Amino acid sequence: AAPTLADQLAAAQDWWRVAGVDCNFSDEAQSWLTEPETPAGERPRPVPQQQAPAPPPEPVIRIGGEIAALPQSLAAFRTFWLEEPSLDAGGSTPRIAPRGPAGAPLMVLVPEPEAKDCETLLSGPQGQLLGAMLAAMGIAGEDCYVASALPRHTPLADWAALQRGGLGDVLQRHIALAAPARLLVFGASILPLLGHDPAQDPQSLREFHQESGSIPLLAARNLAVLSERPGERARFWRRWLDWTETGA
Q: Are strands 213-220 and 207-210 parallel, antiparallel or unpaired?
């Protein structure tokens, strides 16, 4: 008699089982968790997501205020330097005023007061080194205008942020009011505030340009480095002699 359909299916399964095949695999992926589709006419419209409004930008507080409001006289600037709140965020050391006469033959600019300055700018070891240098240059200390780019001792100052905040405008106004014949800058961190490109060699900056004219400028390592390295002092002295003898 002809085998029944059940016998045929059982024989086929036995054949595959003897061949060692006991599972069936499919290469097509199946989504077992897919929600049943809703008819096209009944599909709900997507609800647009509401984005939270962007917070308003924080107001930018310019260091020293607007350029037009900066002091117009050296006496007013010294008061402004000691009292203007936007010049710094405060600290444990006092603000130190610049010293010296307007129209001095030389203006010395340093990044900040020394850590132990209380009343006089550069009253510590750096000031002693500067005094010895001025004596060797033939310049009386009282004839030199000495100033700092920051009003108080500020370790790890963020000079890039200070430049973005407008400290360069304050410093340039200070120089314009002091009106020195020459400008000696100790510390490369100050130079961008004077318009110098940090990618260029600091020694390439030979003049400070302003509306009233240009002032000869000599950029040097900061006084702390000069005090610790005799070789740097000798290198500075050669550059000073070249700068003053050539009149550049």
A: antiparallel
Residue with the larger pLDDT of the pair 47 and 86: 86
Cross-strand pairs, 156:
none
Half-sphere exposure of 9 (CA within 13 A, CB side): 3
User: Tokens in use for 120?
Assistant: 């006089």
**Higher pLDDT among residues 75 and 33, named by residue:** 75
* Alpha-carbon dihedral angle through residues 241, 111, 133, 124, given to the nearest 10 degrees: -170
pLDDT in tens, 134-188: 999 999 999 999 999 999 999 889 999 999 999 999 999 999 999 999 999 999 9
Closest alpha carbon to 218 in 176, 177, 246: 246
Sequential DSSP letters for 159-201: HHHHHHHTHHHHHHHHHHHH--S-EEEE-GGGGGGGT--TTS-
Report yes or no: 125 and 226 within 8 Å, Cβ to Cβ.
Answer: no
Residue 224 is encoded by which pair of tokens? 């702390």
In Å, how far from its chain's centre is CA 235? 29
Give the contacts of 198 (CB within 8 A, at least 6 positions apart): 188, 191, 192
Closest CA to 189 of 168, 208, 172, 173: 168
Query: Would the pLDDT of 199 be above 80?
Result: no
Which of the residue ranges 6-20, 41-55, 105-119, 129-143 would you say has the lowest mean pLDDT?
41-55
Backbone φ, ψ for residue 200 (5° rounding): -95, 160
Identify which of 188, 190, 185, 174 has the alpha carbon closest to the alpha carbon of residue 98. Answer: 174
The answer to whether the CB of 243 falls within 8 A of the CB of 205 is no
Q: How many CB atoms sit inside 10 A of residue 10's CB?
A: 12
